[in-house]
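Following up on my earlier thread - several people asked me to post the actual chain instead of describing it. Fair enough. Here it is, all 194 residues.
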Amino acid sequence: MGWRLGKAVLALPGVVLVLVPGVILWATCGTDAAAHLPGPADPGLWVGAVFGLGGLALAIWTVRLFVAGGEGTPAPWDPPHKLVVRGPYRHVRNPMISGVLFMLLAEALILDSWPIAVWLGIFFLANAIYIPRVEEPGLEARFGEDYRRYRAAVPRWFPNPVAWTPEGDPGSNAGRNTDRNANRSANRNEEDRP
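Reply from S.P.:
Thanks for posting it. Predicted structure:
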């Protein structure tokens, strides 16, 4: 799983959190929009640090859930094979994106960079378009009724303070393999039994 996960982290958060902000910092260097580190008395530094640490913790937690509970990675080319409905996913459908947004906000605050704040807005807008138009229909196709129930009960962006519990699953993961092809194959095998 190490290299599988490594590729996903390098390709996705690496681009969003390191490459694009790096290009922004390089492009704005020497201009009025150039970033600068605030001093320790600047609240932006401390607020940014809180958002950054919170976003990092949320991102690590959600990636671990994808790997352990979902048997996949955050990458679209290697997605989880099980619907992950544990931890923060019981409160909001996109906590991994929230973690990345918090880290981008931290970068903008710590570096006092409005161009990175603009990048944060662009990244959120791109996800606000992509997720309902591409990702959610794909999840519905892969996980069927389990995902439809989850989508109906758990908000996309703003967390519900009360954790959702799937029917018949008092503790953890919607967890069973809901890949439709695997279900069809299992059903055919059961029908073939005497």
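The mean pLDDT is 85. That should answer part of your original question.
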